[in-house]
Amino acid sequence: MTTLNPYLNSVNMDDPGNAVLTRLPGLSRRVFIGGAALTALLAACGTGTTAQTTPTTEPAKTPKRGGVLKAGSPPPPTKVDPVTMYDGTAIAIVQLVADYLIWLDKDFTLEPRLAEKWETTDGGTTWTFTIRQGVTFSDGTPLDAETVKASFDRLLDPDSKSAALSAFDGVLKAGGVAAPDTHTVTFTLERAFSDFPYLVSAGNYNALILKKDYTGGGDIIGTGPFTLTTYDVSTGAVFTRNPTYWQEGKPYLDGVEIKFYADDQADLLALQSGEIDAQILSRPQLVGPLKGAGDIVVDQVPGTGLTAFTLRTDQPPFDRKENRQAVAYALDRPGVNTTIYDGVGALGNDHLFAALFPAAPTDIPQRAKDPAKVAELLGGQKLSFDLTFDPPSKDLALTLQNQLKQAGIEVQLDQRTSADFYGGDQEKDTPWLFTAANLVGWAGRAVPSQFIIPMVRSDGVWNGSKYANPALDEAAQAYDAATTEEDRRAQAAIIATALHEDVPVIISVWAGTVRAYNGTKFAGVQAHPASYVDFSEVTAL
Amino acid sequence: MSAADATAVRAVTRTRGRFRVALSVGVALIAAWTVVAALWPALAPYDPEAQDPLARFLAPGGAHLLGTDQFGRDTFSRMLAGARPVLQVAPPATVLGVLLGTAIGLAAGTLGGLVDEIIMRVLDAVAIFPAVIATVLFVALAGRSVTVMVLVIAGAFTPIVARSVRAATLVEREKAYVEAVRLRGGSTVREILPNIGPTVLVEATSRFGDAIFAAATLSFLGLGQPPGSPDWGASVSDNRLWLTVAPWTVLAPALAIASLVVGIALTADALRGRREHA
Amino acid sequence: MKGFLLRRAATVPLTLLGVSLLVFAATELVPGDVARTILGREASQASVTALREQLGLDRPWIQRYADWLGGFLTGDWGESYTLGVPVHDLVLDRLGHSLLLAGVAFALLAPVAVGLGLWAGVRHDRAADRVISVGGLAFGAVPEFVTGVILLVVFAVKLRWFPSGAQAPEGSGPLIVLWHLALPALSLVLLCTGYVARHVRAGTVASVESPYARAAELRGLTRGQVVRRHVLRNSTVPAASALGVQLQFLLGGLVSVELLFTYPGIGALLLQAAVDKDLPVLQAAALVLGLLYMVIVLGADVAYRLLDPRVRLGAVTS
């Protein structure tokens, strides 16, 4: 009988397993990488200056040129199309070839790429972006404002079927983009949105700038550090250095190869045997135990990925708030972090503000395991429910079941195939939005609104808990429109307190992300909170 | 008694002795695992489901005889507990698959002609139907249960067994003794059946090992045993990702599977050998 | 013989047609939506509905089946829903890889397993027999993804004698290709040897102890001559049958080996297509494998008739 593999489904960007982390073995290597990153950052910041000024403080650090980095990744589940892609491998492939207006740094700061600067003059409704001049696509076509406008018009077209439509929903719609001259693009929003630059940055991963005549399925030509030479749906993709890349001198590598591994273990063994030099989407649970073994280095960053333990607030047993709170108080969160994320995550507090988000409230006490409180909340009643999930959440489901059992709460595991779990109609019956309790992985987002608006606002498209709280709806709107840091924090406190108290979703751990690579052959491979890739500063050793 | 006779007697005695040893070892292995399947809650030192984040990947020895896995669960206790799901699924599935396959193969082989042709072509269609779709569909329609697992696995085995049995039957059918029975108007099936015994036995023992895998595969897909089941096959597929870090978590269930299959093989061989030498 | 071949060949298309209809209908009942798989869970429901219409998935399945069948028969196998590449090239390319791996594994398996089975049968109930039978079963009882991983860890990660992936770089010579295929082939041989050897052994024991073999021995032939002249021929019958079963397994059941050794074979493709409900790929892969299976079975049956005089006679009389 045929043997089947549940992990075969390619890694979705929202696979929680995607978000875990580990650390470097040797102190010297860490220092070196820090140094390299600093140099690179300085070089990137000085758009007018040249990088030659930095060697005065960092002598003899001219990066070595040449070499081909081989990286392993699961095969994309679909044809690679920047407009509709959603899986980690496809995103990585396109990110090597094309640029965003703004890149998202590993600490979620915005780094200018094809946009040199941006501003709003009316409190967040109209945004003006200045497009970098002198940039050409790898086929020689020059970049101009019209091209940028065309890229966004393509995403905003209701027929594009892009997930970006969901991201822009209620903020920006077709017709809102204009190019008044060759180097200026303006966005006119439906409502004030102070974090709008994040929506046109890498944080909205479909928002790549492509040639005007790009149509789905065509050749992917961008302004990025590499060009795609060959692509085979079965084996992988080969990239070569883009000689006309606008960031002078970069990339340092001659090329990149992405090899497809449908099996996690094959990917891992290929790294251990030296067949590949890095992984695109490392899982902390798997590479964590390899830390320091042989040549393998694991870079880790804190992240904002999470697996939401969603509880339906409109039907038994979780229409009773005390039941939801009881589950939240029954969890041993540090235990989840150790077992599922190899300790690289940060404890969650059942609201959607990770500590990394600047507006995160700091005065809500961390929820911890409290058996007495659980008993009190349950009031002598027996709590038992079905937990629905798909294979990537299996280990977490087992750990949650075990922890809840210790607190006297009985959980029956209902594992579905990914196709089943995410299939069906999102307005009627899809299991991930309509079961009483489920686990849904979300990749890291740069701004909390990207979680709050779809997940817990009463009209949210992915509101699986069917949570409806007018006070929260209002605060979420006000948060997006807030222009002062103070106002933001005030709205954030309202939202976080409501979520912490009402527990429509349990956030036990904020996942970090990791990326494993061969530290004896390459330097500069970095983890990214959304598992994005930027190999333009990787050097062969 | 001549010297030659004495040698012959000694040879027979030695062979019988070996069968006795094989039989005792085989029966002992099966019995041991059956007892474990029934009584594991009394034998296991830990709750096989209990996780301990502070005791992950412990090497064998100390408080954990066979170490712990990625959840900090006790490998030894899980190995003992795994005997039950394995013995609930693999033996009934094997027996059902072999019985069905033997009946069909025997019918095709003895009846011959058009009936044979039709049966074999239908079996071909069953055999080439992708197993993935069949299992996913079956479980979607009938729900997840031990019965469904047994039926799915038995269904996958039937064509394989039937093909082997039919092949053996064709050989026997042409032999003189069968011909004689046929001329007398007796039941040829009754004559053929004992003679295809070895083939059926080989199939049964081979299928038993396969049944353990197949059950594991279904669990692996989320279509068989519930997630986290200590089922040996499921444990092997769950734990293989950590093989380089904690090999004991894979080797313990793998050796348990092997020991049970070998026990059954020894028993089957010894029984057949005894009959042949009787 | 000619009539037999014709009769059998005539049933092949009918069987395939039935299978394709069943696959199509069954896939309809499996939960999941290929349009959702293509667009991802964050695409809006409106986009998914639009894509379903675009792919024609909103039409009744019987109509889609008729369309697909018409295309398939006229050589237009369509495009993969998810991967967007022509199904014909994809499936045949993957099949080519699978045939190569199965061929290498089979070339190793056949002589080793038949040899061991004969040896065990001739020396039945002695130590060699025991070791072969029990050893074969024990290896047969360890899933190939366990033996495969152990081989990988030892020979690819620790010793680095063999590559961890089975796919040789484009344009490699035959030796390099074989070097890449060695570990996956070995893990398959370990898995399958026991089954084939046991069947061969059973047939051998029966013929060694048969009256004609005894008679031959009484006529003064040595054991070796008896084996060569009589036993070998009779043992090939179960061997052909058992090898046929294994060949079918090697061609279609290699999913875990293909995944573990990252080999672009048809097994993994079939699985992915079934999971994604990518019907054009699923159908083509299932039919190509089915056709191959039936050819192998037919081949085994023919071999069978040629090898066994009694069956040959039986075929004549029936």
Automatic annotation (TrEMBL), chain B:
Of which family is this protein a member?
Answer: Belongs to the binding-protein-dependent transport system permease family.
GO biological process annotation, one example: transmembrane transport
Q: Which organism is it from?
A: Acrocarpospora macrocephala
TM ranges are: 21-43, 93-115, 122-142, 148-165, 208-225, 245-268
| Localization of this protein | Cell membrane
What are its GO cellular component terms?
plasma membrane
InterPro entries (UniProt xref): BP-dependent_transpt_permease, MetI-like, MetI-like_sf
Q: What is the lineage of its organism?
A: Bacteria, Bacillati, Actinomycetota, Actinomycetes, Streptosporangiales
Describe its membrane topology: Multi-pass membrane protein
According to the lineage, what is the superkingdom?
Answer: Bacteria
Q: What is this protein called?
A: Peptide ABC transporter permease
Q: Which UniProt keywords apply?
A: Cell membrane, Membrane, Transmembrane, Transmembrane helix, Transport
Q: What is its main location?
A: membrane
**Which residues does the UniProt record annotate as the domain ABC transmembrane type-1?**
83-268
From TrEMBL, chain C:
Species assigned in the record: Acrocarpospora macrocephala
Q: Where is the signal peptide?
A: 1-25
Q: Which GO terms describe its cellular component?
A: plasma membrane
Keywords assigned by UniProt?
Cell membrane, Membrane, Signal, Transmembrane, Transmembrane helix, Transport
Domain ABC transmembrane type-1 residue range list = 95-300
A single BP term in Gene Ontology: transmembrane transport
Query: Family assignment?
Result: Belongs to the binding-protein-dependent transport system permease family.
User: What membrane topology was assigned to this protein in its record?
Assistant: Multi-pass membrane protein
Q: Which residues cross the membrane?
A: 99-122, 134-157, 177-197, 249-275, 281-304
Q: Which domain of life is it from?
A: Bacteria
| Name this protein carries in UniProt | ABC transporter permease
Question: What compartments host this protein?
Answer: Cell membrane
Does Nucleus appear among the keywords?
no
Q: Which InterPro entries match?
A: BPD_transp_1_N (IPR045621), MetI-like (IPR000515), MetI-like_sf (IPR035906)
Main subcellular localisation: membrane
